[in-house]
Design a protein that fits this description.
The protein is of the alpha+beta class. The protein has 2 domains: 147 residues, 3-Layer(aba) Sandwich (Aminopeptidase), CATH 3.40.630; 150 residues, Aminopeptidase, CATH 3.40.630.30. Helix content is 30%, strand content 31%. The strands form 2 sheets. It has a 12-stranded mixed beta sheet with strand order 1-2-3-4-5-14-6-13-12-11-10-7, with helices on both faces. A two-stranded antiparallel ribbon has the order 8-9. The chain starts with 10 loop residues before the first helix and ends in a 12-residue tail after the last strand.
């Protein structure tokens, strides 16, 4: 059995998966088979059935399926976020094939491809309530890195005061603040990608410059220096429960030095979202008692639960990880 690129899958995997299962690149004609077993994930909340045709396209990503002949046993994807960072997502296993090592072999084949492209680390995101996803990630060599929460400040109306005067789009000021912020320490230097939704990567100065040019960047400046930063990653539209279109604005990180800076930063985000005509926002913040309670104090609408980020080192022999337990 091969992994779809001609490489042999090891004997242990062949024994568990069966000789009739092939790990191969996903194709457009797999859509119906993939949708058939992902449609009920999270009580029908899975995005993959809707986005699959576009989701698998692109030179900076690799999507693999486990082909069992008469069914797709599982799928997963890895995306290159930078020269050394990869992002794992969309890992799903057909319920009829659980317990046979499907997720492990897809994951390791994705790791192989990412390492061939130069990636040294692969990360993923798992909802904190997703016990199966967390266990699956740890079983394939992912280690915990950080956790974050979402804030949802209400967009300002046209009658509000607008952008605070002491907020500037200065990448150098924002980068300088980020380097010594508590948020950076807790988040291990990670923030939302500008190019891939639901993905985090190491926040770099050129990302802040890109945000200043293409989306929006906010640096809170005060007499004692820069005290906070945020940047907009994207906006998108989707239907609410009543079938009405809603506009969402997303911000890659919210970091601040104190409560006053937090208030100013969230005011800036609300003003920006209001100018965009957004109905809702979300801002990634570190899952710390200080940041979350600041958001609560400022009535910024905190998400109910955190999300976890995990990482796998691709420079070692990750395929031996399962043998080390």
């Amino acid at each position: 059995m091969t992994d779809g690129t001609g490489a042999e899958v090891d004997a242990a995997a062949r024994t568990e998966l069966g000789d009739g299962v092939e790990i191969r690149p996903a194709r457009q004609d797999d859509h119906d088979a993939v949708a058939a077993f992902t449609r009920d994930t999270w009580d029908g909340g899975d995005y993959i059935p809707d986005v699959y045709p576009d989701w698998i396209e692109g030179d900076d990503k690799r999507t693999l399926v486990a082909d069992a002949g008469d069914a797709i046993a599982g799928l997963g994807q890895v995306v290159l976020l930078s020269e050394h960072e990869a992002w794992g997502q969309g890992l799903r296993v057909n319920p009829e094939f659980r317990g046979y090592g499907v997720s492990r072999e897809i994951t390791y084949s994705l790791f192989d491809w990412a390492r061939e492209q130069g990636a040294a680390v692969a990360r993923n995101m798992v909802f904190s309530w997703n016990q199966a996803g967390l266990g699956q990630s740890r079983a394939t060599g992912y280690e915990p890195v950080t956790e974050f929460r979402w804030l949802h400040p209400d967009p300002s109306s046209a009658t509000d005061s607008g952008m605070p005067d002491n907020v500037v789009a200065d990448p150098n000021a924002a980068w300088s603040f980020w380097g010594h912020s508590d948020a950076r320490d807790h988040l291990a230097g990670l923030a939302l990608s500008l190019d891939e939704s639901w993905a985090v990567q190491e926040l770099a100065r050129d990302m802040l410059a890109q945000a200043a040019d293409e989306t929006a960047l906010f640096a809170v400046t005060e007499r004692h220096g820069t005290r906070g930063l945020a940047y907009r990653t994207r906006t998108w539209e989707r239907e609410d429960d009543d079938g009405e279109e809603e506009v969402y604005a997303e911000y890659g990180v919210g970091a601040w030095a104190d409560l006053d800076a937090a208030r100013t930063l969230l005011d800036a985000i609300a003003a920006d979202a209001g100018d965009l005509g957004a109905d809702s926002t979300r801002v990634l913040i570190p899952e710390t008692a200080r940041a979350v309670s600041d958001g609560a104090y400022l009535r910024a609408n905190i998400s109910d639960e955190p999300d976890f980020v995990l990482a796998a080192d691709l420079t070692g022999d990750y395929r031996s990880f399962r043998d080390s337990d």
